[in-house]
């Protein structure tokens, strides 16, 4: 087996520190390219769908570093994941049904100054979470000052206070 073939395809147990370091640099550069191909949506929206792809991508690429999977196949799998992510994203842009299935939908948690406790409980939003969002996003101090607040698809709470 040639040194090049061993470097690309052998198991991690046979690697020395230099080979692991070189594989790390290769995977790092490839990861930068993969994330750039994924564009801003992949790292900007932070929906559950985007977070999931980030975890899977990290897991797949780590195999290329430690040698539990051949390096070429690992890098290919990373690019395929981003391609699948983009295909699903495009489908979700074209279909509101697919969009809701993948990303969920916004839920109102405050309506005309009153907490909607049933929705808050259903979606795991505590009173303290809501108050933090009201102070930071709505720049008001009480729920009574809030016209509406929504738990967004990203998990953030957007706040629209009454006009002053």
Estimated structural class: alpha+beta
Distance between the terminal alpha carbons, to the nearest Å? 75 Å
Count of beta strands: 4
**Fraction of residues in β-strands:** 5-15%
Silhouette:
elongated
SS element count, helices: 7
Reading the helices and strands in chain order gives HHHHHEEHHEE
Gyration radius, to the nearest Å?
22 Å
For the biggest β-sheet, the strand order reads: 2-1-3-4
**Could you estimate the helical fraction of the residues in percent?**
55-70%
Output mean pLDDT.
Answer: 88
Low-confidence stretches: none
> Largest sheet, if any?
4 strands, antiparallel
Verbal overview:
With 164 residues, this protein is an alpha+beta fold. It is built from seven helices and four strands; from the N terminus they run αααααββααββ. A hairpin with a 5-residue loop joins β3 and β4. The termini are far apart. The relative contact order is 0.10.
């Amino acid at each position: 087996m040639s040194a090049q073939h061993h470097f690309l395809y052998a198991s991690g147990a046979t690697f020395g520190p230099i080979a692991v370091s070189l594989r790390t640099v290769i995977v790092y550069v490839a990861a930068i390219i993969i994330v750039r191909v994924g564009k801003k949506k992949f790292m900007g929206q932070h929906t559950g769908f985007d977070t999931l792809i980030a975890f899977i991508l990290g897991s797949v690429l780590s195999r290329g570093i430690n040698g539990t999977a051949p390096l070429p196949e690992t890098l290919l799998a990373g690019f395929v994941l981003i391609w699948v992510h983009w295909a699903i994203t495009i489908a979700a842009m074209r279909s509101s049904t697919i969009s809701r299935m993948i990303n969920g939908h916004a839920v109102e948690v405050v309506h005309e100054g009153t907490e909607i406790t049933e929705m808050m409980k259903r979606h795991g939003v505590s009173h303290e979470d809501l108050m933090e969002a009201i102070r930071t996003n709505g720049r008001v101090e009480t729920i009574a000052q809030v016209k509406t607040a929504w738990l967004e698809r990203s998990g953030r709470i957007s706040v629209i206070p009454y006009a002053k």
